[in-house]
Amino acid sequence: MSALQDLARRLADWDPPGDAVGIRTFDTLGALVAGSKTEEGRAIAASLRGFDDGLPATVTRRVATVRLTELDDIHMPTCTTPGAVVVPTAITVAASLGVNSAVYRRAVVVGYEAMTRLAAAIDGAHIVYRGVWPTYFCAPFAAAALSATVLDLDAARLANALGIALTRATGLTSEVVGMPIGRWLTIGDAARAGCAAAFAARDGFVAEVDLDRITAGAGFAFHKAALNADGPAAIDEVSVKPFPIAKQSLAAVEAALRLRDCAELGPVRVHVPGAYARMIGAAAQAESRLSRLSSAAWNLALAFCRPEELQDLERTLSPDDQQLARLSASIEVVDDPELSLFYPLRWPARVEMSGHVETVIDAIGDPPIGNDLAAVEAKWHERPEELGPLREASLATDLSRINALLDSRREDP
Q1: What is the DSSP string of 309-343?
Q2: Per residue in 274-300, is it b (16+ CB within 10 Å) or e — as a string?
Q3: Cα(84)–Cα(69) distance, integer angstroms
Q4: How far is CA 348 from the centre of its chain?
Q5: Of 112, 201, 116, which Cα lies nearest the Cα of 165?
């Protein structure tokens, strides 16, 4: 039995408790609502008209809209954001096929497992800094797994769905400059491709794939054992972001928020694991919203001077703002070998300023601190979106109610 067939058999029989599904659904759909109100979210809602307005287009738009927010959950050991792909895809497919909430919950758990297991097999936490986007590479695979679960495919057909999905996997995407950027539709289309793979497997199409060849073209290895390694359920191990930001900068921003009342503003040194020091050490760019979400210097400047702006999805403040520009220019990001030992299980930071030092190993929303309903409730309490009815429907995994609420909010055209 191949590693892929073994995984398919495991996923077909997978039945761990789905207690976290309602929480992840609430958190992810909050991001969908928030993202739909942004400039890029509105562009996504208007996309594909005249080409595709059906179920596949809805999957594309919903996944794209969640992922653009940087409010979605993240699985740190693999550097993937499973919720953005799994939850909107599962809701859309499950509601379309009229399955019950128990099937939906199982599909979500399976989707989280499929994405993170594949990402572990390709070493997502390290190849991401070599230009491969692991969430994008794994999105067809996760969408195929969850869609096959909704379709109640047996292990053999699930293996074919996963195989077909892998033939559509690539981690290469566009740069992050401009508006709206195509990478959001890229991840949405990847999820749609995974759904199509499951429906094709249902209809009898088969696919045997060479796992090593799938990744060799992109220049990285495939670690087959990671596909079927034992471990805790991935859905219980994701981190919840308290506000929109690249996760790599979050611990440093939390440290800065602790320091802002006890130190005078001055030169700042930020120590982080070497894997992503260069990434978050880059300056914010006026023409790149994502750079303003990822730049440690820019987000620390906000934390010190205008912390309320950390909740702004658009990061509308310009890098040309004189006060923020001066402060961000005084912030240096350095590779810390000691902190590198924690990565990728933890993404820590140490901030030094004016003789004061603050170290954050586990940030707010990380599993050791708490990624449960309390963490998600606290997060959305700080934001302007009104999620009351959607919260209740999400926690109950009431699919018909969820989709009615989403339709009434017009996230989809």
Answers
A1: GGG-TT--S-TT-HHHHHHHHTEEEEE-HHHHTTT
A2: ebbbebbbeebeeebbbbbbbbbbbbb
A3: 10
A4: 19
A5: 201
Among 168, 172, 170, 225, CA closest to 201 = 168
Task: For residues 327 and 404, state if they share a domain.
Answer: no
Q: What is the largest CA-CA distance in the chain?
A: 67
Is the pLDDT at 196 greater than 90, yes or no?
Answer: yes
Q: For residue 92, what are the domain limits?
A: 3-241+370-409
User: Alpha helix locations (H) across 183-288?
Assistant: 183-202, 211-216, 247-259, 274-281
Q: In the beta sheet, which residues pair with residue 358? A: 351
Write the burial class of residue 213 (CB in 10 Å: 0-12 exposed, 13-18 middle, 19+ buried).
Answer: exposed
Pairing of β 331-335 and β 268-272: parallel
The CATH number of the domain holding residue 353 is 3.30.1330.120
User: Do 153 and 113 belong to one domain?
Assistant: yes
Write phi, then psi, for 350 (nearest 5 degrees).
-130, 130
- And the tokens for 325? 């520009």
Q: What does the pLDDT look like over 44-76, one tens digit per residue?
A: 999 878 787 789 999 999 999 999 999 999 999
The pLDDT tens digits of the residues spanning 18-29 come to: 789 999 999 999
